[in-house]
User: What shape does this take?
Amino acid sequence: MSKFLKGTMILLIAGLFTRVLGFINRMVIARSIGGEGVGLYMMAFPTLMLVITITQLGLPVAISKCIAEAAAIGDRQKIKKILAVSLTITVSLSLIFTPGLILSAPYLTKTLFTDSRIYYPLVAISPIIPIVAVSAVLRGYFQGMQNMKPYAISQVLEQSVRIILIAVLTTAFLQYGIEYAAAGAMIASIVGELASLAYMFTMFKLRKKFKVRKKFFQAVSAGKETFYELMRVALPTTGSRFIGNISWFLEPIVVSHALAIAGLTAALATKEYGVLTGFALPLLMLPSFVTHSLSTALVPAISEATSQRNFYLVEHRLQQALRFALLAGGISVVILYLFAEPIMQMMYGSTNGTNLVKLMAPFFIFQYYQGPLQATLQALDLARAAMINSLLGAVVKLGLIFVLASKPDFGITGAALGIMTSTLLVTLLHFATVIKKIQFTIYVREYFKFIVGTVSTGLIVFWWKEHFLLHGSIFVKLIIGIILTTIIYLVFMLCTKLIKRADLAYIPIIKRFL
Assistant: This one.
């Protein structure tokens, strides 16, 4: 098995565990502080992500790419320079922006947000910035070396610690008010991230084959060329993420003001936004652990192939990634569309947001497809093009959200339509950019078979669900329905040869069976 596929499988397994733990985490939060508390939590989070994006400066992707290229020729000295320069940049920026966020929190709360209670979770989460900054450098190092285990295990560890602490802290702080409970959830995130960093740092100390501290500042001062090399990838990547996070930062502001124009109170607008971003979107993003795993492994794999000028391998790896993303997205769309209501009831104890999940699910196939395309653009030194595509998508999203959500007939559904339109646009732009750069064959017949198989699965399960799945508890019906859907989908994909026997052999349990 190639390093790319091996790394992808490790990240897939860890990603599945992380997603499950993440949903347990959200279930605990939702049941502890309700939709309004989730709304406060989610409104503060985009601001944090914006600051973290600035602090990281797009370095994780740049580090991964540059280290993969250096490792391919065995240049350890360059790897050391990359780490020294990256740590200097991220630590310096975090020391500026952490106190900056704390000091600006009162201003942000009063001028930009419609709910003053956001101040408490905003301040509580600020200390996570330097922790994430150092973690990002270590993550980029392990990804560049195509050793995905430390990062994968650290993610599982972080979520496990977070869940335990959220259950304790939200309960402890709830007596003081919902805003304090939301702040408690943020504090749990800090400790979880700290545990993740501690594990990755330990693995780095054990696995590295050179001394980072020895002549550290000499490596930094001599790393001017390394700095420019990193920035060529990092700045456009930061631009893309900065645009995404600016958009995410502005999103709750635009939504809250648009809903206010539509006649909703501040508390109700917060609750509606909480249903969309805290309940519906996380459920729709569940399969993205597959595309995230593929994207993470794809950057160093394509960078390595490009440095060796093996363009056939570049296309082959991209085709593999897109096929896996499409297959995972197809089954996810069918399950989420058909079983949205029982899934929401089981997870959150409420069916609020079911209509949003059903509306958005078919379009989210483009979201799952987008990750590998963006990773390919970054690996091919086309991060600037990805940034421009993201900018266009962000402008379209915010514009549509304001226009549609401010109309009483649409409300929060207008925000969902804006998000979907933006996702579709960015994915198509990324795809157009990739096929301009590399030779890429579009297998129309394969896509047709995929559409037929996915739609047929949905129709068969819908008919069976309406006629036979009538009795029993919600949990039992949901499990039976998901198992049946998965079996029918796999049969269609195997019969059409979209999934091959060789693909199944990559899964450890099935590999032993075969």
About this structure: The first helix runs from residue 3 to 56. Residues 42-259 form one domain. DSSP finds 21 helices and no strands in the chain. Residues 259 and 406 are 5 Å apart (CA to CA).
